[in-house]
Task: structure prediction
Amino acid sequence: MMRDPSHVLNSHLITAFLFAVSLGKMPDPFATLPTEISFHTLSFLNFSSIARASAVSKLWNQIAYSPDVWSALCLDPEGDMLKFTPGVPVSAEELETLSNHYSNELLRRRSETDPSVACSKRMGLRGQFVSCCRHPKSFCKQNLSLTKCVVPPSRPAVPNTPTTFPTLLHSGLAASTTDDVYCQDIQQTLFENRPTKFWSSTGSMSGEVGNLDSREWLCYKMTGMCIVRGVEIIPYRAIWQLGDPIYAPKRIRFSVGFTDNPAQMHYHSRWFDVELSDFAQYFDLSPDFVVGEYLFITTDGKYTTQPADNLYYTVFQCVKAQGHNLGSDNYGEITRTVRKWRERMLREL
Amino acid sequence: MSDPANITLVTMDGTTFTVPSAYLHRSKLVQDWLRSEGDKQAMEVKHVTPFVLQGVLNFCEIHAEDTSEPLADPADPTKPFEADPRDDAFRGMPDDQLLQFTMAADILQIPELVRLTAQEMASRIDGKSPDQIRAMFNPDDLAEEDVDSDNEMGEVGEEGAISK
Result:
């Protein structure tokens, strides 16, 4: 950015400033500093502090209204809002493996994108997110309101029962493995009040975390463009088997994107630990601002072997995603920004 | 001809400071001056007092050996930034001095010092009520009407979602 050199020589202000200091009076910083330094100063603050600063005086109010102040906040709000981030990096090899496996499952042509290229492009696109935003202040306001409106459910009191929030998941696209394709496929996890329905992986020899044999994945299409706040899963308890075993994975990761191919997704969460329990477990993605149309769940490790064959299984009774569908009229600025950003993403991929 | 290894700066009251040029490699103003008028004896920094220039030069000396990438101007506030314990002196100074250093950092165009002082200034504003800020900084243009614009941005409720 080119700067106007004239501010450097604004001797009038500087004289006034030194005069004020000589009187032992603290001068108004924003009346003294060049405007871009004032913007820069405010851009370090969070939403509520900027709001308070804007109430100090007319001048402060004007400065606090500048988009320059808000765009930093929009990309990196501190504490009180969801924060836009690509999440935790996943290695290109791992993504390629997932992507190939995924394409095979769907009987599709292999993706043309080189995952390592997609990965680096995705990082560059983070910066573009803000340039897609025309009114950073509205974006921040809506983001704050969204963060307040969509809150994680409290811990459920009874097992096998999902909490009451409406799910964002529309349909299951594919799973890494399916033990019985007729009645244990991924679609079974979408039913909320049929505790006897479930998706089951096939058995594996290993249940160790990090062992590729113990990994599974599930891919869902969501109801449209959605902000995802968190995901809830219920590991399945097989009450008819000896010892009522629960087939939970040991850890779980969530990826979100505008396409269903995991290698092209722009967000990957950290690994969350899963409890060996048949209560609904909620994984909160905040403070990450996660937006997309497809949810890809990767699980790692398996706790339990099936008594009949001594193999490890992951079985889910129910999977739900919580958040907000951007198709509705609210959150206009977020929706516009995300649409524009999505177009750029898809062009680049 | 001046010694290329050193540079002499003259403040508003004629006080001179001679320091190794390497100290000022992050100052865009000094670098531009060296390119265009480096054959002159001394560079005038008219609008900075000796006390403040001394402090700025201390900062430059502390950071002369730093190998970090030069910051963009203005620095991207979203880049993670860890407080450097060597800069604690700047964090502890009174408000008016901090403001003088912010101005000097801007005049000399040292993005690292601008970020440090601007962030410190921000942390002093952070969490304070408008009245507390007014008491601290004596804003120039306090008029009655300012007081009732208080809640325009402070109120962010559900209706905030629908505004354009």
About this structure: The domain at 6-63+76-130 of chain B is CATH 3.30.710.10 (Potassium Channel Kv1.1; Chain A). Helices of chain B lie at 28-37, 50-62, 88-91, 95-107, 111-125, 130-137, 144-148, 151-154. Chain B has a mean pLDDT of 76. Chain B touches chain A through 57 residues (CB under 8 Å).
